[in-house]
Every structure is written in C-alpha cells, then in structure tokens.
Amino acid sequence: MKLGIDIGGTFTDFVLFDNNSNQLYFAKTLTTYPDPTVGIFNGVKELEDKFGFPVKDMEGIVHGTTLVTNAVIERKGAKTAFITTKGFEDVLEIGREMRYDIYDIFLTMPKPLVPRNLRMGVSERVDIEGNVITPLDEGTLESLATTLKNSGIEAVGVCLLNSFANTSHEKALGEYLSENVPDMYYSLSSEIMPEIREYERSSATAMNAYVQPITDKYLKDFETQLRKQGFEGNINIMISSGKLTTIDGARKSPIHLLESGPAGGAMAGVFFGKHLQEENLLCFDMGGTTAKACVIYEGKPEITNHFEAGRVKRFKKGSGLPVRIPVIDLIEIGAGGGSIARVNNIGLLTVGPDSASSTPGPACYNLGGEDPTVTDADLVLGYLNADYFLGGEMKLSVQAARKAIETKLAKPMGISIEEAAMGVHRIVNENMANAARVHVLEKGMDPRHFNMIGFGGAGPVHSFGVAKLLNTKRLIIPVGAGVTSAIGFLVSPVASEKIHSHISELETLDWKEVNRFLSDMEDDGYEFLSQSGIAKKDATVQRVVEMRYYGQGHEITIDLPEGQLSEKDITEIQERFIKEYEFRYNRSIEGMRMEMVTWRVVVQGPIPEMNVEQFSTGVGGDESYKGTRKVYFEETGYIDCPVYNRYALKPDEKFDGPAIIEETESTTVIGINTTIQVDSDKNILIDLHQ
Fold first, then answer.
1. Residue 486 in contact with residue 238, Cβ under 8 Å?
2. Cα(267)–Cα(270) distance, rounded to whole angstroms?
3. What's the confidence (pLDDT) of residue 619?
4. Residue 644 contacts by C-beta under 8 Å, 6 or more apart in sequence?
5. Given the DSSP bridges, would you call strands 495-505 and 594-604 parallel, antiparallel or unpaired?
6. Which residues contact 18 (CB under 8 A, 6 or more apart)?
7. C-alpha distances in angstroms, 109 versus 188, 252, 560?
8. Is 630 exposed, middle or buried (0-12, 13-18, 19+ CB in 10 A)?
9. Is the pLDDT of residue 386 over 90?
10. Residue 396 and residue 382: Cα distance in Å, rounded?
C-alpha cells in the first residue's frame, strides 16, 4: 500500500492505493494551524478507522506541503544571514533595477528576506570563467563566525560572485561554517542554484536558508511520528517539477517544495490523460484557497525555470522574489472555495484574493467565520448539499451562508441573495477562465483545442462554468476529483536534476569538457536514485540545454542528442533550436550565431504504475439517482435538478444535463445543453454543446 498526503490551505487530502486489490481509498480533513501534522495524523487515523489500513502496513508515503510557500509569503522563516563577495551585499535589494508597474507611483518592491545588517561581504573574487582573481581571505572567517553566533543567526545563505564557474571558495566557506558553527544551517548557491544571473542565484540561496530550519524540523517531526506508529517504508516528498525527492533531499533543498501541491495536480493530469488517451489537456485545479491551471501538451506538462515567490501583487510579474528552480508552468488565480467576497469602495462586487482558509472558514462552516465566501455562494445556489459535505461528516449551515451574503453583499448592493450569490459564482468563473485563456495563448496555443480536466475540492463545482467560457468541447471530472493532487503524488517518479552553467558559442564548444561535466551530472543522479533503492538499469536520463541567439538575454530549452556529443551533433542541435524558437515566436533569425548557456541533466526512476480495477470505494447505496433539489442556474433560475450518487454510477452510463453529481470529497455541477457519460474507469465525461 502507498499513501499520498497533500496539505492545502483549507483541507489536507489523503489517497491510499492498495496494490493487492488495485483500489484507491480517499480521506479528507481540515488543515490544522499552526501545526499541520495534527491534521495529517487525523487523516491517517480516519483511514485506519474507516478502511482498516494502519500506517504500519504501508509500504511508502508521498507528501506535499505548503509549508515553504506559506513561510515565504507570511515572512515566518528563520533569522537568516547572507554572505557574498565584498561589495555585492546589496544584490538582494537592488534586484534587476526594474519596476514591475511603471505607472504605479506608490510602487512597493518585495522586501528581501535578509535585512541589510545581516548581509555580509568577504574578500574574494572569481571571474566568469572560474579563474581566481582574489583568493578567499580565510583570516576574516573567524570574526565572521563570531558575528553570526552573537547575532543569534539560525541559517546563512552563501552566494559568492561567479561561484557557478568555480565552487572552491564557497565550499571552503561552507566547510568552515559547518566545523565552527555546527548548530547553524547553511546553504551554498553552488549546490542550490549553480547557474548564471547573480540576483536570481542570491535570491534562491537566501530563500533556501530562510526556510530550511522550519522545514527541517517539520520533516524530522513528521518522520519521527510515522516511525513511532510503526511505519518502516520509504518517505518521498513532492517537489515543484512534478518529481519526487527523498526526505533528506527535501531537508537540504526545501526551496524545491515551493509548488509541490499544484505539481501533484499536473502529474495527475498526465496520468488521467494517458488513460483517457488525451495528450492535450487543460488542467483546472481549484481548492479552498486558490485555483491553478496548467497545460498538458503531448502528454507532458511544461517545465519553467522562472518562478516568483511572495509577490507583493499576486498577479504582477516581477513583484515577487525570483527563484530559478524547475517548476511546472502554472497560472495561479486567487480564487478558492474560501475566497472572501465583498463590495468595494465604488459599489462593485469583488472576490478574493484573501481567503477564510480553514480557520475560521466560510460562514457556512459555523466555525466563527462571518464573511461570505465562494463556498457560501455555492451552497445558497443549491450546488452543495448541506448534509453531505465531506460525505456528511461536516454539516453546513445554509442559514449562516444566506445571512452572510445578505448582510455583506445583497443589502449593500440592493439585490436579492440569489443574485448576489450568482454574482460571486460568475465573477470567480470569469476570473479563472480569463487567466487560463491568457496562460494558454501566451504559449502560442488555442484554448478551444484543449479538453479540460477539472479537480480539487471546489474544482468540479466551477469547472463547467470555466469550460463553457473557454468554449471547451469536453470536460473531464476524474475519479477522486476532490483529492486529485494526492493521486498525482502516487504516479510521480523519484528523480534528481543537476544544473551547470557553461557559456559558449555552439560552434566553438569544447566537446570534451561538455561530455565530462554531463557525465559527472549523470553519475550524481544515479547516486541519488540509489538512496531510494533504484538501480541504474531502471533509470532514464534526460539531458537538455538552455540556448539563445548570441546577444539575447533569455534562453529556450531544447533536448540534447543521446550519447557522447561532438561536432557532428552541431547541425541537429541547430535544427532543434530553430524548430523550438519558431514554435514559440513564429520566426527564426537566419545567420545568427547560437550560444549554449545552462545544461541540465534529469536522472529519473521508473514512473509508478497504478493498474486500478475499481477507482473508488463508494458510499450511499447502489442507486445512482438520489432525487432532485432546487438548484439555481443563470439561464433558468431555480429548477428541480437531478442529483446523482457518483459511486453508484455504472460504466458507460449516459444521461443529459443539468445534473449534480455528489461524492464524499467534492461535488460536480453540470449545466444545461450537455451530455454526460461515465467511462469504463468511472471518470465523468461531459460534452458541452456550444
């Protein structure tokens, strides 16, 4: 048995796969603050109580968490120092010297994680080719260590100029700190992000140090509690690229956990797309706090190395702290089930981005929340069953939801409660559809050519509205839609990615040097996989390089030819670059020299197979039709809408919308002019007649 655990802002999701019976089992609990492990072990106990699966019998656990993201956003990391080459102490403050909004006269830039008084310089200098210009002044290291001790520093980030080209000074500094200040955490840029661009490398290194103490403690406590309960299997952690790392790898480089939960959703999209024979999908994931969308193209999610954390303005590029780590390319929309709706200063209805989270939660939770949220609106419209939320384990209050909407929205705007609730629902759908549309168009693709897969706790409630706005032909609601990201954890491979910046024109590359460092990166990857019991013969290797036309400031990624590289591969590399460049920009530049910049090697274990015979363990009887209830649709107003029990739906069953389909972890809302079919794996396929 293998267990996936996904901690979200509102709920913690659990998916257990039993390889003996080929069945999936689901659980969902409220995320607990300030200690999320309480919610984790509440869910683990629920799995044992409901299904008889104690944690000691599980072979492996895969975990994803929002801990790192929240620590950066809320500025609740460790007291951190930053050491760099003397004269470069202000790199974190200066940044790119760019304004992310040139017309905002009250512009606020992201505040560095390390204040100026804790940013220190050491005398040393290495040039861009790795030649030592000024040796490291080891005589100053003792006073530096003393300053760190006296300042109560918990972690330190070390990022020396051009250390990606020569790591000797950083390693010497790291070794000195580990020997003389052993209780302090330290992060070296040559290990965290060994590539060009000083500001991005400094930002990533400082961030890794900032979150490392709290992440290390959290993961250590998590592992200790599991071992105490008799768990003896492997623990893997989901990282932002859609791959898995070991718990030790996550403790060393927690920055790679920034987008671990959403990455699970994308990998689940790949899994379901493969089973449904859908190579091109738009994944729509909506939880309690945020919604996200990503593209699966030709069976793979797109990976980007441009990511920002802790944005001052959530949807403004450049307003956050840059982190050049491999991340599945997602667009985030500040709308979830807990997003708060309000009337702004000019009398317009707005939703989010702030969320009621799980504490105090939406008004209908009856846990002290008084602000109307998206969940409250969905309940008033009849989309949710007040007596069947989380399968009936959590009762919702329609009265509390109506009161919050009436007091805070309907009365101030002079409209009915239902109109206000529908306004909230429509605004959320429009915001999400617009963001998803732009995300797809920016990649040079047409959203109308993609079918959509919707999941997350609130995703199936809103997927139909978003798909309709995007003119999507088919909407897919997978089994376990409410916990799909955790399913993605179980079908993701263990992998290692190594990075090396080596800048040279393609025509003048030293191929012997290139083959040497590519081979070293592969060997490091094989060694990492061996720690998870994966043999070299079972691993696959992907080698890519980031290239650009000479003189450009940014690169695009292409796959490298297999085997030893030499001059005979130049033509093929050129052709691959031109093809990718034309795909993205609809043009190429004839006769322009090409430059290789950063090389990446991913060594990956086998992709876990789940040969699922029965996708869900259902409740609620054998009858699929549960009756009708009053549901409000924009086109019709309130109507008597058929309600179905998802667990009792039979493969190949077919009927027309509108319909409400209920399951323990989520509810699917389907409007008019639709045909609904259940496939052989019990996924819901909705054809929209637009």
1. no
2. 5
3. 56
4. 624, 625, 626, 659, 660, 661, 662
5. antiparallel
6. 1, 24, 25, 53
7. 25, 29, 38
8. exposed
9. no
10. 12
Q: CB-side exposure of 539: number of CA atoms within 13 Å?
A: 25
Q: Which two tokens stand for residue 488?
A: 């993605």
Q: pLDDT tens digit string along 150-197?
A: 999 999 999 999 999 999 999 999 999 999 998 899 999 999 999 888
Q: Is 234 helix (H, G, I), strand (E, B) or coil?
A: strand
Rg of the chain taking only CA atoms, in angstroms: 26
Within 10 A of 244 (CB to CB), how many other CB atoms are there? 29
Nearest of 482, 479, 474 to residue 685 by alpha carbon: 474
Say if strands 23-30 and 11-18 run parallel, antiparallel, or are unpaired.
Answer: antiparallel
How far CA 565 is from CA of 491, 513, 562, 570, in Å, comes to 33, 10, 8, 9
pLDDT for residue 613:
62
β-pair partners for 604:
495, 540
Helices (H), 232-288: 247-252, 260-276
Interatomic CA distance for residues 653 and 383, integer angstroms: 22
Select from 36, 114, 116 the least CA-distant residue to 75.
Answer: 114
Domains of the chain: 2-69+217-260 (3.30.420.40), 73-214 (no CATH), 495-604 (3.30.1490)
Read off the pLDDT of residues 584-624 as tens digits, 9 standing for 90 and up.
Answer: 888 999 989 999 999 999 999 999 888 776 554 555 556 88
SS3 529: helix
Do 94 and 84 meet the contact criterion of CB atoms below 8 Å apart?
no
> Tokens standing for 289?
């706090």
Confidence of residue 116 (pLDDT cuts 50, 70, 90): very high
Q: Cα(294)–Cα(301) distance, rounded to whole angstroms?
A: 7
CA 455 – CA 85 distance, rounded (Å): 47
Most confident segment among 336-345, 521-530, 631-640: 521-530
pLDDT, position 621: 58
Cα distance between residue 278 and residue 255, in whole Å: 32
CA gap 311, 344 in Å, rounded: 22
């797809």: which residue's tokens? 440
Rounded distance, CA 408 to CA 160, Å? 53
The model's pTM: 0.87
Q: Could you tell me if 311 and 357 are in contact, meaning their C-beta atoms sit under 8 angstroms apart? A: no
Residue 286 has pLDDT above 90, yes or no: no
Which tokens hold the place of 376? Answer: 């409250």
What's the pLDDT tens digit per position in 391-441? 667 788 889 999 999 999 999 999 999 999 999 999 999 988 988 898 888
What whole-number distance in Å separates Cα of residue 341 and Cα of residue 335?
Answer: 10
Q: Tens of pLDDT along 493-545?
A: 999 999 999 999 999 999 999 999 999 999 999 999 998 889 999 999 999 99
Coil, helix or strand at residue 151: coil
Question: In sequence order, what are the residues at sequence separation of 6 or more whose Cβ sits closer than 8 angstroms to the Cβ of residue 207?
Answer: 72, 113, 157, 255, 309, 321, 323
558-564 long-range contacts (CB < 8 A, ≥24 apart) are: 564/515
- Measured in residues, the chain has a length of 690
Q: How many CB atoms lie within 10 A of CB 444?
A: 10
Strands 637-645 and 659-662 turn out to be parallel
Burial environment of residue 300 by CB neighbours within 10 A (0 to 12, 13 to 18, 19 or more): middle
- Beta-carbon contacts of residue 102 (< 8 Å; ≥ 6 apart): none
CA–CA distance, 605 with 361 (Å, rounded to integer)? 40
pLDDT of 443-495, one tens digit each?
Answer: 888 888 899 999 988 889 999 999 999 999 999 999 888 888 999 999 999 99
Q: How do residues 122-146 score in pLDDT, each as one tens digit?
A: 999 999 889 999 999 988 999 999 9
CB contact at 8 A, 459 and 666 = yes
